[in-house]
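Archive entry. Fields below.
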Amino acid sequence: DIVMTQSPDSLAVSLGERATINCKSTQSVLSSSNNKNYLAWFQQKPGQPPKLLIYWASARESGVPDRFSGRGSGTDFTLTISSLQAEDVAVYYCQQYYGAPLTFGGGTKVEIK
Amino acid sequence: EVQLVESGGGLVQPGGSLRLSCAASEFIPSTYWWNWVRQAPGKGLEWVANIKQDGSEKYHPDSVKGRFTISRDSAKNSVYLQMNSLRAEDTAVYYCASGDGWRFDFWGQGTLVTVSA
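PREDICTED_STRUCTURE:
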């Protein structure tokens, strides 16, 4: 199984400042056939289902603000919120869809400092 | 945007069975897969099953293999999760999700399953 490890577990950032979340996989999620990383990021607010933010490690889902960006390849990935807004308070998960079982990171809680 | 609506959750005794349903508001493309993902109270996300839109392939993680079975009815644009031999640790909100390939592009609101005597 591919284990996804996120860091930190929680993060407090001032409004307008940058937030960075890390995600590491125990094996590469980069496909040699299409050169794509099978890595997604989700945002989950209390009482709501997760919402897809980023797929293919760096492709922003339609309607997602451009302050959200994803980077990385192989086994190491980051999600960056360039200027934290109040509505970004949530738990963020990374997830690999390279192989079964599909697995998620443990989540990172982002709060306002 | 496709809307997914889950139903069938509730309270069940340990060892019991429950069948969850998820209906899509419009036709799901053939390249999409249906998924079930669960979230125990206060915990993270765990994928529990997926099935190809044409039903030709399906997968379950070891944690539920032999107890949970995913199926779909393309005519009804729906997917189901039959859960047998339920345990306390299966207590969770169960989400239906779908997307291109194995991605989770859109999600339902979830249905709560509580396993307790």
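CURATOR_NOTE: The CA atoms of residues 56 and 101 of chain A lie 18 Å apart.
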